[in-house]
Amino acid sequence: MTIYFNREGDHDHNGLLFALTANVPVLRYLEARSRMVPPANLAALHAAALPRAHQLGIIPLPTRYQDARVHPLVRPLVIRATAGAEVQVVLRNKISERWIGLHLVADGYAVKTQDGSDVGKNPHSLTPPHGTRIYTWQCRHEGVFPFHDGGNYSGGEDGTNAHGLFGALVIEPAGSIWRDPVSGRRSRRLDGSFRQLDGLYLDVLPEGDAQNPDVTISPTQLPTHHWPPPSPIPIFTPSATASLSSFFTTSPSFAPPMMRNRKKTRVPTQVRAAGTAITGAATACRRSCRFPTALSL
């Protein structure tokens, strides 16, 4: 997938992403819409992306290729869990001719079968092209733990990590939930089931009253509330305006007061005169100089 870094068009045309499976239809539409000449099935991709876009609160979807190039959904994958929980990630490798692994930089998993890499004498734990593999992680410590493709550690252009195959697992305190600040979607549904929300910027609500919705009605929202009349606009007097102008003036004649020292120093008269002469010479020079006609543009 082409990853655009800014609206000026700087991009990585070999971009790769870890993404939630539910977000794939939206990402496919954004990839197609970002092209100057969209494909013939653009309408079908748009229809497939609409249900998920409604859930994420990113309606309407971009209709111009300039707006689709830099989109907040095209980002590294950031998933969350609570301390003490077990996370199972089903990795579906949609990259042709690449064995991909999900290597978590943390503890809490079986190194020989869940490492997401192919190192040493251990059997590999990679996912083949168009294959599926389940990675199980135990969330033992709070914090932010990065993960990346352990199937290719090359840092060059032929590697996968340099093109975007990385993300992070954020382990929150036990009992906390998180909420999307835009759509209001919560990680815990009303029936108590868990819903994975990806993204770096989420509202994390600790266990307790913070998770309960605030139903308090502000007095200013009541029909019987009467707002006070607006305050009159102050009228500045001419003297106040004049003093303000003189304080912030940029005129050369304005001389700010000098700091008082123990010993007063005076500038010799001949130095001041020389300075005046230099200023006058510079003014005369500016008035007498003219650009040749050949250089006029």
TrEMBL record:
Protein keywords: Plasmid
Q: Which GO terms describe its molecular function?
A: copper ion binding
The segment(s) forming the Plastocyanin-like domain are 79-174
InterPro entries cross-referenced by the UniProt entry: Cu-oxidase-like_N, Cupredoxin
Q: What is this protein called?
A: Multicopper oxidase domain-containing protein
